[in-house]
Every structure is written in C-alpha cells, then in structure tokens.
Amino acid sequence: MSKWKGKAIGVGLGWLFGGPLGAILGGITGDFFDKTTLGTYPHKPISDYDRSLNFVTHLVGILVSIAKSDSRLSAHEVKVIERAFVQFGFKGDDLNFIRSLIQQTTRVQLNLRDVCYEFKQYSNYAERLSLLRIVYLVAYADGVLHPNEDTMINHIIGYLEIQSNDAFEIRAEFCSDNDKNYQILNVSRNSSNEDIKRAYRTLSKQYHPDRVTHLGDEFTRLANSKFQQINTAYEEIRKEKGF
Question: Could you say which of 1.10.10, 1.10.3680, 1.20.950, 3.40.1350 is the CATH number of the domain covering 7-162?
C-alpha cells in the first residue's frame, strides 16, 4: 500500500503547500489514489505523512528543475530520476506514485528558488541535508557533475540555507582523492586528534538515521549508508593516526 493513499485524498493535497507543487499533487490524486482505502489506512501521527509527502514532492521538483537547467528535458534524464527512486528502494504503489509525480512535474515550469523556499518552510535542517545528499547522488549518477548541475546545486545550498561546511562534507562523499576520509569528516590531515574526534561526534549526531525515520524506510536506508560512511571514514583516519 502506498504511504500516501487515503491521506492525500482525505485532505485534498492543497493543504500542505500551495503553488505549482500543490497543483501537481492535485492533478494526480484522481487517477492514482483509491478513496476506499481511507477506512483501512494505518493510524500514525499525521505529521509523519505530511513530512514524508512534503519531502518527496519537493525532491522531485528540485531534481526535475536541475534536469531542465539546460533548457531541455530528455527522456534519459527522466529515466535517471526514476531509476534513482528504484535504487532508493521504492516499489509497487509507492514507485507508481513517484513516477506519476515525475511525469506531472515535467509538464510545468517550476521556479527553483520558490520550490526550495517552500521546502525550507516545511522541513527541518536534517531533512534539508538529506535532500541535498540525494540531489548529489542523482547528479553524479553518470559519474560526472556537469557545470550547470554544479551551479544549480550551489543555488540550492543557498536557498535552503545549508551551512557551507555541511555542504562541503556532503559533496566530499563523491570525491575520489586521497583526502576523501578527511573531507567526509570536514577536517584536514593537520587537524588534531581531538578536533577529528569532535568532528566525528558532531556528524554522528547530525546524520543519525533516527533523524529521518519519519520520511520512510527508503530514506532511512539512505541515511544509514551515510552514517556508515562517516563511521568508516573515522575508523580509517583513527587507524592511520594511531589513536
């Protein structure tokens, strides 16, 4: 069963946010959601559904905006976005919902700044960091960060008010140089052992999977992979420095 069945129909989809994203969601409810599921939908805090739906909708809007940054949107770019959600673990009705959302979003012209500002209004900082990491994952899907993608991601960082050191740390995950472990922890080879330990403790708290469990199993798995990378980087540095 899709996470958003019943909930989306029951509240009308314009309740969470307005503008083009609200219109997009409204446009797919009639075809996708089944009103008969309302009576059997599992009871959870409404805020969990709100935040999960808010996250995936704005994520799709931002990914499509980036794909359109060269003034055209190819079928390949749409497939890359769809494939990303498959890799995240979406399947069945949830994946069908994502596909419908992508198709609807490609038909409208979104303002990236407005989409980011709207998302920032309804999200916490941990969610914004998770979204930025997913944006990088999709942007690097072909192994290269293209200049126009890099420019738009820098705009997203600014619009979402993500701190520069956090943005640097997320981007470092995709680097291939010898200092990758240090960059992941946002420290240097010259940093003291105490500074490295402090950075590790801070990042472990900031990226702990418990902070995004409300977004669903798919995004919790992504958070777990990030958490593991932080732990691995720290262990590698600790072995190298012998502390």
Answer: 1.10.3680
